[in-house]
Amino acid sequence: MSLLVVGLSHRSAPVSVLERAALEPGERGKLLQDTVGAEPAAEAAVLSTCNRIELYADVDKFHAGVAELSTLLAQHSGVSLDELTPYLYVHYEDRAVHHLFSVACGLDSMVVGEGQILGQIKDALAVAQEQHTAGRLLNDLFQQALRVGKRAHSETGIDKAGQSLVTFGLEQLAAGASVEEWARGKRALVIGAGSMSSLAAVTLARAGAGELVIANRTLDRAQRLAESLDGARAVPMAAVAGELAAADVVVSCTGATGLVLTASDIEGAAGGRRREAALAVLDLAMPRDVEVAAHRIDGVRLVDIESLADAEADAPMAGDVEAVRSLVAEEVAAFGAAQRAATITPTVVALRTMAADVVAGELARLEGRLHGMDDKLRAEVTQTVRRVVDKLLHAPTVRVKQLAGEPGGAGYADALRELFDLDPQAVAAVSNPEQERQ
């Protein structure tokens, strides 16, 4: 089996395609179940964020796996396969590992170095575990990606290369001023209470926003968030229209599949505002919460995912990015070596089990031929025979594990099975102990 990832992101697809292909939260579980139900895939995980949708799977056939995963992404996203295919990218084996580790470090983010992706990777693993579609490979992969991402942020200055998408978006609205200077005293409306909206609320509160209102479809979640911030209050979604008219800044990031704020809503709230007092709107949702026509309304400054992508393309890159790339390359090599070495373990265990069975059989035969052996002599003979076998097997098994960890080492397990005529079912039983007990 081999690791395969098929996906699309802000680097491969226009925002118009990304927002149409965005998965609803409940759709992720269905996609995972359909993936492991397909013939080429044994494990599956989906990383779905505001600017990427990636399906990871452990497959036994590359071409069939690519075709199946592409078809499943199209079916569950609602975008036809013909339309989706030009924007899909494919990574396989070590390149797939390299891709996820780069994503975890923020190298592939819209804002280089942002740390929110780690929470999204953690969530992707949790969903796969809940759906029982993450086996040994994907559990190891995603847990190691989280460790690599944390290492990148603690050992390098990648954080200096960019900010979170929230901070970057607020900086675009501030247009050259610091977020603290720009937001101080402003009345802010945050729509949504998820991770991105919560971060926006916290950022605005720390920047000194004069009034902070949290609106959410589930009022309890809005209230919990508001209670954690001094001076904030929660309102139901039905109150958004009234709050919008009084707001200076609006940040929206919900999981809604339709528009939350239409151009008419925005125009009504912005009516009569002076240019210097324009309504600042930050739309971080995918698909978008705010109708794109709001860009053309006088008295409104709208920043959305598409404009953030354009702004990021011109942002300077920090030198620490190269340090992270080196770290990723090092971690990919180590992960590959560990995975290749792990593939030989069931064969080594099966070999040692067979050797132990041979020793037990020969000792039993010896016992039948040498009647009257006392317990002390029997123990000495048993220990000697086992020691001889262990010494004979020690060097080959240690060396074969070392060789299996090197590039091209996958064939050593096959060679060991062939040389010692190991029963394939015995090796499989070591690899899948749960299945063997059923």
SSE order and pairing:
Layout: E1 2-9, H1 15-21, H2 25-37, E2 41-49, E3 52-59, H3 62-77, H4 81-84, E4 89-92, H5 94-104, H6 116-130, H7 136-155, H8 165-174, H9 179-183, E5 187-191, H10 195-206, E6 211-216, H11 219-227, E7 232-236, H12 240-246, E8 249-252, H13 263-270, E9 279-283, E10 300-304, H14 305-313, H15 320-369, H16 375-404, H17 411-419, H18 424-431, H19 433-437
Helix pairs in contact: 2-3, 5-7, 5-15, 6-7, 7-15, 12-13, 15-16, 15-17, 15-18
GO molecular function: glutamyl-tRNA reductase activity; NADP binding
Binding site for substrate: 49-52, 109, 114-116, 120
Active site: 50 (nucleophile)
CATH homologous superfamily annotation of the largest domain = Glutamyl-tRNA reductase, N-terminal domain
What does the average pLDDT come to? 86
The shape, in one word, is elongated
User: Which structural class do you get from the secondary structure elements?
Assistant: alpha/beta
Level of helix content?
A: 55-70%
Number of domains: 3
Low-confidence stretches: 433-438
CATH topology annotation of the largest domain: Beta Polymerase, domain 2
